[in-house]
Amino acid sequence: MGGKGANIRLNVLSWRNTQIKVRLPLSSKAKPGQRYYIGIRQVSPVKWLSNINKTLMTCVSPTQSPNQQLSPVNTLAPTSLTPLSKGLLLKDVLTPSPNSNTKSYGNGSNNGGMLGYGSDGYYYEDTGGYTENHSGQLMGSGPPSDFAPLSNENGQEDDPENIEPGEIITASASMGNAQALAQQVASMGLHIKRRKSLASLGMVITVFRTTEGTTASQTLTQLHETFPKIWMDVNHRFNLQGARTTRHYAYELIHWHKAVSKCTSGLRLGMVDAAVDSKHPALQGAAIQTHAFIGRGMVSAASEHGTAIASLMIGQEGSGFTGIAPQAQLYAAEVFRQRDDSHTDATVEQILIGLNWLAAQRVRVINLSFGGSRDMLLELGLRQLMKQGISIVAAAGNGGLNSPAIYPAAQKGVIAVTAVDAKSHLYRQASQGTYVDFSAPGVDLWAASGKGRYVSGTSYATPFITIAIALAGANSQQSNSKQLLRFLKIHTTDLGESGKDSKFGWGIINFEHICDTKLHQ
């Protein structure tokens, strides 16, 4: 609130499209009967971004005396104020506490469109309704300084085939922030398509529909220039990192033995993948819980890949598909869809929703056997999980020697896994790069896909490291990422060049004494 010598920061109590409630602190600069202007002001550098010229209603707090009450006044609109546009830092307007809850009732109108909850917990257009959220806090900083919209490691724009057409996805700290951002981008012709609160990740994600005749890449570039501190990206598609090729060498190669299965009891594992056939003979009797997060109008992808990954992790003894950790508890988030006859993929939106569910299940490690382009929203979600002590293991990719880095494997803090064959030779299609951390069997593995088949790809190597990480964490309740990495190095046989290299990382995992090693603080 400013004007007439006043410069008072107001405490926002609630923020809705039609009403903003604030608390006016007691101040000798606020005089009864005086006219002031109210607006949104950028903190640094100081600049007024918007103002409203509406009648204000002021109320008397029980702690105020009547002579301190401000009379109902109209705000004056100084000519120096600029329209609400570039540079708004939402964290300077609304700063929710970590435990803040927000409820809003009514028709949920945003930017002229109606929003409401569907049966799957989403907000949708043209459904009307009610909203209730449990908001959290994002990190204090904005996106990484090297974030270039729709640009990969080689500076090339993403292939349009790898993104959802006409969609931009953003992350906000609370529903209030999300609503404020929606009001800002309305002037650019963007309208809300879907919105969902992800309490376990501490964020609200909003999917905006771009204007007709404007591509998602063009819109993102414009938005990034206008709101450089907002987490946003196109709605990327990610692909499973398995290949269909036509021996039970894997356990011998990693020195796995039956005693390992006993020490995996009680491990809580997570995976984000395609559907899992929990009725498959390999998984009958296994401790597995699945949950599908397929968006409205989408068709679930076939279960071959997801079931194969699950069998490598917790396949039951005697089934012909004994997994590495048959006594562990597996939580499988099913997010992959069959987009058409030749495309199986998942959007970052669905992946985040699956990750949010896994975090609520208190898993210690999450297996991600998929990859794609770098995505800011996925990067943020994984950072939130790692801050909670949840380890992320991802497939290094099947793009070959000259392929760009595959994400999320290449993200800092994520453990990237490549595949080797029975002779410890690198999988011929494996992606290479400094981000590769460890190797594991991943060529011609017998897995529970259909009645059983041989599978190849970095997808299938990833579960071996996921189990190793889970065992490392089980040896300490206070383990951190550096200690877990040190644990893995102890149980790794070097391959290729001495030390870490771009082909094999630190080398191939060795399970021979993995249950006997204690993780020292």
What CATH first level of the largest domain would be assigned? Answer: Alpha Beta
Mean of pLDDT: 78
**Helicity level, as a percent range?**
10-25%
Radius of gyration: 26 Å
Low-confidence stretches: 61-140, 152-156
Alpha-beta content class: alpha+beta
Strand content: 25-35%
Number of helices: 9
Number of self-contained structural domains: 3
Give an overview in words.
This protein is an alpha+beta fold and 521 residues long. It folds into three domains: 83 residues, no CATH class; 130 residues, no CATH class; 269 residues, Peptidase S8/S53 domain (Rossmann fold), CATH 3.40.50.200. Helix content is 19%, strand content 26%. It is built from nine helices and 29 strands. The strands form eight sheets. Strands 8, 9, 11, 12, 13, 14, 19, 20 and 22 form a nine-stranded antiparallel β-sheet that branches. A seven-stranded parallel β-sheet has the order 17-18-16-21-23-24-25, with helices on both faces. Strands 15-27-26 form a three-stranded antiparallel β-sheet, with helices on one face. A hairpin with a 4-residue loop joins β3 and β4. α5 packs parallel to α8, α6 packs parallel to α7 and α8 packs across α9. The protein is elongated. It starts with a strand and ends in a 12-residue tail after the last strand. About 16% of the residues have low confidence.
